[in-house]
Amino acid sequence: MEILSAEQIRAWDEYTIQHEPIASIDLMERAAASCLAWLEKQGYLDRSFSIYCGKGNNGGDGLALARMLSLLDCPVTVHILEFGNIGTEDFQGNLARLHQTPVEVRFVQGPEHFHPVPQDDILIDALLGSGLNRPLEGVTAQLVEHLNASGNEIIAIDIPSGLFVSRSAKGNTVIRASHTLSFQVYKPAFLMPENEVWVGEVHILDIGLHPGFLSQIAGEAEILDPDIIGAIFRPRQAFAHKGNFGHALLVAGSYGKMGAAVLAARACLRTGSGLLTCAIPGCGYAILQTALPEAMLVMDPDEKIHTAVPDGLDKYSVIGVGPGLGQDQRTVAFLRSLLQQSRKPVVVDADALNILASHPHLLSLLPPYSILTPHPKEFERLFGPSPDDYVRVEKAREQARKLGCIIVLKGHYSLIAMPGGKSYFNSTGNPGMAKGGSGDVLTGILTALLGQSYSPGEAALLGVYLHGLAGDLAADTHSQESMLPSDLTDHLGKAFQIIQKR
Ligand SMILES: NC(=O)C1=CN([C@@H]2O[C@H](COP(=O)(O)OP(=O)(O)OC[C@H]3O[C@@H](n4cnc5c(N)ncnc54)[C@H](O)[C@@H]3O)[C@@H](O)[C@H]2O)[C@@H](O)CC1
Ligand SMILES: Nc1ncnc2c1ncn2[C@@H]1O[C@H](COP(=O)(O)OP(=O)(O)O)[C@@H](O)[C@H]1O
Ligand SMILES: [K+]
């Protein structure tokens, strides 16, 4: 599913109006009807509503919804915030239609018109939508604060008023919604952690915008959905042998952190690697041999850390490096040699990223199309602080282009930024994964896929999606609280089955 800017969404509305064709006010009717259907499905129709409208088309949506609710005998009051203009044509059209119903309409010109909010009312926020072009101020900001302070449940239409579609509203006044009902596609605002408190749960409602429009635009970002994943996933051929599925080398673990190596290695095996060799320091020998009889080992001469690059790197189809590695000076030198000798894309995570951050000249050694998997803190160490989430995402895109690598910026909606400029936000995963070790599992998954016949881009998309899907399945089994990173690996089998069936 594409992620579009306010301008692109407006252009899509226009395209639909011309090519379906449909009158603009009828498209608004469809938007309001989709909100009504959602309210009905969620069991809200036995409630009463206060609907707050601006005078743009977002307000028009609110007026149309008010009429529809009233026709179903729901108690509704409409409050229109006066901006000193007459409102858009479709706003006016819907106001005229609303006047045919018994709905009471109140006009708000200043704080003296702020009525106490009835305790049980659901508040519908249709003040401002994707047309917001400056932070809220004056009466608008005061009204939003008044509504937020009421403690009533707020449902925002299209986007919480005060939130920009594609740039940060940090520090601004914004409606605090528990649900946001938006149309057709995700907006960037819904994917940024900093907006979680404002948008609540997001529901994307289909209003039948014309599909022809999408072939005309070069979408910069998409939500990773089952269709994309279904097109990437390749089932095994009947006559396949282990040589078809790669020989992965996982470079991980150090004294006190061998668990990271075990987690990554198990995930790598469960993701179908043909062969797996783990490069580990001496202290990990018994641990790995006992935990994973399927894995082979190459031992570092050092007991505790990585110091020597294994011989014959070329025989491995892929290298994954980082989990539990430590950052000893000798390990820094080790990483330098490993990267210098690597001729294929590498999966780089955790301490390998931290070493790159403290020795940035090593970044130039990354083979093209390597996959870097920083969480936001590691990302900051690598590329510096970002004032807000939008800037961080843009920076990740820029760095992916600059380094010629794939950057997986991990989070609730992990970003996968491709060197060619395109990026994806993952749709699977849950906060039960916010535990030390989940990232190690991802490294194992990505390493396994990159070692098979998947291109680096495909491996990154499929791997991040599978990891989150396994997390969702693990949460179903164990709860978000109780699930462990190793449970992600245990649910990979089921995740593969789901992908295969689609
Ligand atoms: N055909 C369409 O275009 C459709 C549009 N829809 C609705 O239309 C909305 C977009 O409508 P509009 O483009 O009219 O945008 P808005 O309803 O967001 O209103 C924009 C107006 O508010 C003013 N404004 C911007 N920032 C302000 C601020 N901080 N304080 C006060 N005034 C401010 C702008 O100058 C402009 O006049 C969407 O969010 C969606 O709800 C839906 O009805 C679906 C169909
Ligand atoms: N709230 C969340 N929602 C979805 N996924 C999450 C959430 N929190 C963490 N994750 C996922 O869990 C993984 C955590 O990785 P990381 O922070 O590197 O942990 P580790 O300490 O295990 O290395 C990432 O893939 C991230 O996307
Ligand atoms: K709104």
UniProtKB/TrEMBL annotation:
<dbReference type="InterPro" id="IPR029056">
    <property type="entry name" value="Ribokinase-like"/>
</dbReference>
<dbReference type="InterPro" id="IPR004443">
    <property type="entry name" value="YjeF_N_dom"/>
</dbReference>
<feature type="binding site">
    <location>
        <position position="58"/>
    </location>
    <ligand>
        <name>K(+)</name>
    </ligand>
</feature>
<comment type="function">
    <text>Catalyzes the epimerization of the S- and R-forms of NAD(P)HX, a damaged form of NAD(P)H that is a result of enzymatic or heat-dependent hydration. This is a prerequisite for the S-specific NAD(P)H-hydrate dehydratase to allow the repair of both epimers of NAD(P)HX.</text>
</comment>
<dbReference type="Pfam" id="PF03853">
    <property type="entry name" value="YjeF_N"/>
</dbReference>
<dbReference type="GO" id="GO:0046872">
    <property type="term" value="F:metal ion binding"/>
</dbReference>
<feature type="binding site">
    <location>
        <begin position="410"/>
        <end position="414"/>
    </location>
    <ligand>
        <name>AMP</name>
    </ligand>
</feature>
<dbReference type="GO" id="GO:0046496">
    <property type="term" value="P:nicotinamide nucleotide metabolic process"/>
</dbReference>
<feature type="binding site">
    <location>
        <begin position="57"/>
        <end position="61"/>
    </location>
    <ligand>
        <name>(6S)-NADPHX</name>
    </ligand>
</feature>
<protein>
    <recommendedName>
        <fullName>Bifunctional NAD(P)H-hydrate repair enzyme</fullName>
        <ecNumber>4.2.1.136</ecNumber>
        <ecNumber>5.1.99.6</ecNumber>
    </recommendedName>
</protein>
<keyword id="KW-0413">Isomerase</keyword>
<feature type="domain" description="YjeF N-terminal">
    <location>
        <begin position="9"/>
        <end position="215"/>
    </location>
</feature>
<dbReference type="GO" id="GO:0110051">
    <property type="term" value="P:metabolite repair"/>
</dbReference>
<dbReference type="GO" id="GO:0052855">
    <property type="term" value="F:ADP-dependent NAD(P)H-hydrate dehydratase activity"/>
</dbReference>
<dbReference type="Pfam" id="PF01256">
    <property type="entry name" value="Carb_kinase"/>
</dbReference>
<keyword id="KW-0067">ATP-binding</keyword>
<feature type="binding site">
    <location>
        <position position="375"/>
    </location>
    <ligand>
        <name>(6S)-NADPHX</name>
    </ligand>
</feature>
<feature type="binding site">
    <location>
        <position position="260"/>
    </location>
    <ligand>
        <name>(6S)-NADPHX</name>
    </ligand>
</feature>
<feature type="binding site">
    <location>
        <position position="125"/>
    </location>
    <ligand>
        <name>K(+)</name>
    </ligand>
</feature>
<feature type="binding site">
    <location>
        <position position="158"/>
    </location>
    <ligand>
        <name>(6S)-NADPHX</name>
    </ligand>
</feature>
<feature type="domain" description="YjeF C-terminal">
    <location>
        <begin position="225"/>
        <end position="499"/>
    </location>
</feature>
<feature type="binding site">
    <location>
        <position position="440"/>
    </location>
    <ligand>
        <name>(6S)-NADPHX</name>
    </ligand>
</feature>
<comment type="subunit">
    <text>Homotetramer.</text>
</comment>
<keyword id="KW-0630">Potassium</keyword>
<feature type="binding site">
    <location>
        <begin position="129"/>
        <end position="135"/>
    </location>
    <ligand>
        <name>(6S)-NADPHX</name>
    </ligand>
</feature>
<keyword id="KW-0456">Lyase</keyword>
<keyword id="KW-0547">Nucleotide-binding</keyword>
<dbReference type="InterPro" id="IPR036652">
    <property type="entry name" value="YjeF_N_dom_sf"/>
</dbReference>
<keyword id="KW-0521">NADP</keyword>
<keyword id="KW-0479">Metal-binding</keyword>
<feature type="binding site">
    <location>
        <position position="324"/>
    </location>
    <ligand>
        <name>(6S)-NADPHX</name>
    </ligand>
</feature>
<feature type="binding site">
    <location>
        <position position="439"/>
    </location>
    <ligand>
        <name>AMP</name>
    </ligand>
</feature>
<dbReference type="GO" id="GO:0052856">
    <property type="term" value="F:NAD(P)HX epimerase activity"/>
</dbReference>
<comment type="function">
    <text>Bifunctional enzyme that catalyzes the epimerization of the S- and R-forms of NAD(P)HX and the dehydration of the S-form of NAD(P)HX at the expense of ADP, which is converted to AMP. This allows the repair of both epimers of NAD(P)HX, a damaged form of NAD(P)H that is a result of enzymatic or heat-dependent hydration.</text>
</comment>
<dbReference type="GO" id="GO:0005524">
    <property type="term" value="F:ATP binding"/>
</dbReference>
<keyword id="KW-0520">NAD</keyword>
<dbReference type="InterPro" id="IPR017953">
    <property type="entry name" value="Carbohydrate_kinase_pred_CS"/>
</dbReference>
<comment type="similarity">
    <text>In the N-terminal section; belongs to the NnrE/AIBP family.</text>
</comment>
<dbReference type="InterPro" id="IPR000631">
    <property type="entry name" value="CARKD"/>
</dbReference>
<dbReference type="InterPro" id="IPR030677">
    <property type="entry name" value="Nnr"/>
</dbReference>
<keyword id="KW-0511">Multifunctional enzyme</keyword>
<comment type="similarity">
    <text>Belongs to the NnrD/CARKD family.</text>
</comment>
